[in-house]
Amino acid sequence: MTGTTLVVGELHDGGLSDATKEAVGVAANLSGLENVVGFLAGPSARAAAAGFGKLGVKRAFVAELAESGRSSPPPRTRWRRAP
Length: 83
Known about the structure:
Radius of gyration: 14 Å
Structural class: alpha/beta
Strand content: 25-35%
Strand order of the largest sheet: 1-4-5-6
Helix content: 25-40%
């Protein structure tokens, strides 16, 4: 039985980096594509998370900073499951 493999993605020009795409392929070989989960963090993470779906990843999670407009207190992080 193979467990879930988490791929922590890297953003590049608003999309997934080539290294992230390669990591998805390696993770799929290790545990099967159905067991790969993606994760992205950053201001454009939600939009870029669709790139995981294009690679066949069924689940992806994102962390985006809340729009507070203030520098203090630190912005809180919102965790969402990507569509």
